[in-house]
Write a structure and sequence with these properties.
Number of domains: 1
Keywords: Membrane, Transmembrane, Transmembrane helix
Distance between the termini: 74 Å
Number of strands: 0
Order of helices and strands: HH
Helix content: over 70%
Shape: rod-shaped
Number of helices: 2
C-alpha cells in the first residue's frame, strides 16, 4: 500500500511541474510574439514616416511639384 500511496502522492507533483513548465513556455512564446509584433509595428511606422516626410521635405526644400504629386503613391 505504501508504494501505491507514494505513487498517488508523487503524481500531482509531476503534473504540477509539467503544468508550470508548459505555462512558462506559453508565457515565453507570448512575450516573443508580442516583441516581434512591436518590432514590426515600429519598423512600419518608421518606414512610412520616412517615405511620407522625406519627399515632402525635399519638395518643400527644392520646390519640386512632381515630388509632392508622388507622395500619395507611396502612401
Amino acid at each position: 500500500m505504501n508504494s501505491i500511496q507514494f505513487g498517488i502522492k508523487r503524481r500531482p507533483k509531476s503534473l504540477r511541474v509539467v503544468v508550470v513548465v508548459v505555462l512558462v513556455l506559453v508565457v515565453a512564446a507570448a512575450v516573443v510574439v508580442v516583441a516581434a509584433v512591436v518590432v514590426v509595428v515600429v519598423v512600419v511606422v518608421v518606414v512610412v514616416t520616412a517615405v511620407v516626410t522625406v519627399p515632402t521635405e525635399a519638395a518643400a526644400y527644392f520646390g519640386n511639384r512632381a515630388v509632392v504629386k508622388a507622395v500619395p503613391l507611396y502612401v
